[in-house]
């Protein structure tokens, strides 16, 4: 009997030692132990500007139908109860419903930031979680910022492991991986220890979700992915806090995240990226702010087409045919199915369409929110040109380091005009500066509020690293009743 107990104890110890070296355990240790003072000042500044960008987009989203239909559902889920504010709206919801709404608003226009290598919209899940849980727990905005950075560092690395593979299978990393980053954000703010934080990630393995099926018909489901991830993260952290048991090998296990969601493509992953440079190299600084309200995979081609328009004064009637060179890994997202990409069924469909975006930029000289309005989507000149836009896989693409793009125009008079954007605008090596982010923020805010109100919100967000309560920030971001 004693020998049996010794063997059992030895097996338990071996199992625990294995778990302590797991990716989940390493991320948990980082989340628990990170001292806010150890985060470089430049990283904290960048974090504030990424949040500022998200807040501006959320306000702009309040003008659209999807926001108000979402709010109707969230209010019903909250049973018209709750005291948690919502960004840009006067509603009061229960905590998880408020996080869901804030995620929808930030991600709803597909204008929010992207970590290029991880192919993930990290802020859209991390900030709603940090804002909601910190306000709920009575914490300060310095706690909120530190937890936000924890989530950003973890989520971007986990997304990077797959090397763009999730998209090839049909999963959206923002919803899927976002559940794990949100878990660490919520867990840190709830005071979980490293063991509980590791367990919480195991629980989150059964909650993360995000299908790319919306690409076939422009459905609204992608908009809810980061808010749902925030809900999943808070739920997982709360269960772990109360002793609920989850699996230990969350990421590298036989049915862990990558094996279960990538199948045979899991052979191409690099698990070392999940924790490489953690606490020394800061992926938050590598997050790209979007200059164009569309899928990041389309940006280089959109810019290339706009430049060709400006340089050559192109009109649709001048153009015989167009070729758009894109990374092979993005074809399923922004080039297929061809029929709907060439004639988008709605604004969301258009945001993931190389033919429509390239045609718009060639004819109108730019691509912005205006080109997602109903009148623009029905523009016969643009739609006619979109039928002449074909895609080709770019053999020289540096994906996923950059989302390159090239547009080649053949004119009726026999000219061949081309422009290439090797590094997409907004990427870490071609960043959008703080003043540029402020301008984008103001442009988005002014769609919904007065300039004085926009300036007030800007100052509130950029002052987050001072002695402020997270609850006061949440109240300050909500619409005035």
From TrEMBL:
Pfam families found in the cross-reference section: MmgE_PrpD_C, MmgE_PrpD_N
Residue ranges annotated for the MmgE/PrpD N-terminal domain, each copy included: 26-266
Coiled-coil blocks: none
InterPro entries: MmgE_PrpD (IPR005656), MmgE_PrpD_C (IPR045337), MmgE_PrpD_N (IPR045336)
MmgE/PrpD C-terminal domain boundaries: 293-462
Record's protein name: MmgE/PrpD family protein
């Amino acid at each position: 009997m004693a020998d049996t107990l010794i063997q059992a104890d030895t097996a338990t110890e071996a199992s625990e030692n294995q778990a302590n070296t797991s990716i989940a355990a390493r991320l948990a240790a980082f989340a628990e132990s990170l001292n806010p003072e150890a985060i470089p000042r430049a990283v904290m500044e960048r974090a504030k500007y990424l949040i500022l960008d998200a807040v501006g987009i959320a306000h702009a989203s309040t003008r659209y139908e999807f926001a108000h239909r979402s709010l109707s559902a969230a209010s019903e889920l909250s049973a018209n109860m709750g005291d948690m504010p919502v960004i840009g709206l006067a509603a009061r919801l229960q905590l998880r419903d408020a996080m869901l709404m804030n995620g929808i608003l930030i991600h709803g226009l597909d204008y929010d930031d992207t970590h290029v290598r991880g192919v993930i919209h990290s802020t859209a899940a991390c900030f709603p979680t940090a804002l909601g849980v910190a306000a709920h727990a009575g914490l300060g905005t310095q706690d909120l910022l530190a937890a936000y950075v924890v989530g950003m560092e973890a989520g971007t690395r986990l997304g990077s492991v797959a090397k763009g593979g999730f998209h090839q299978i049909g999963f959206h990393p923002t919803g899927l991986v976002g559940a794990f980053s949100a878990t660490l954000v919520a867990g840190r703010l709830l005071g979980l220890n490293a063991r509980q934080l590791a367990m919480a990630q195991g629980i989150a393995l059964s909650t993360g979700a995000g299908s790319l099926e919306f690409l076939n018909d422009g459905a609204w489901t992608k908009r809810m992915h980061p808010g749902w991830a925030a809900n999943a993260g808070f739920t997982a952290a709360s269960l772990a806090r109360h002793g609920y048991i989850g699996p230990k090998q969350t990421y590298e296990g036989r049915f862990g995240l990558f094996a279960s969601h990538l199948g045979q493509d899991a052979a191409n992953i690099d698990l070392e990226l999940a924790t490489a440079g953690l606490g020394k190299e800061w992926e938050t600084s590598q997050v790209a702010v979007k200059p164009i309200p569309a899928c990041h995979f389309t940006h280089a081609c959109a810019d290339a087409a706009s430049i060709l328009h400006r340089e050559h004064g192109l009109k649709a009637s001048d153009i015989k045919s167009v070729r758009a060179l894109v990374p092979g890994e993005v074809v399923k997202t922004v080039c297929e199915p061809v029929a709907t990409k060439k004639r988008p069924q709605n604004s969301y469909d258009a945001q993931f369409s190389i033919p429509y975006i390239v045609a718009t930029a060639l004819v109108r000289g730019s691509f912005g929110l205006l080109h997602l309005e109903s009148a623009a989507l029905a523009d016969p000149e643009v739609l006619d040109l979109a039928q002449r836009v074909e895609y080709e896989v770019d053999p020289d693409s540096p994906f996923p380091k950059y989302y390159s793009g090239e547009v080649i125009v053949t004119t009726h008079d026999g000219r061949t005009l081309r422009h290439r954007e090797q590094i997409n605008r907004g990427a870490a090596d071609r960043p959008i500066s703080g003043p540029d982010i402020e301008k984008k923020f103001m442009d988005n805010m002014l769609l919904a509020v007065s300039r004085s109100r926009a300036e007030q919100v800007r100052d509130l967000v950029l002052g987050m690293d001072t002695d402020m309560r997270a609850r006061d920030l949440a109240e300050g971001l909500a619409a005035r009743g």
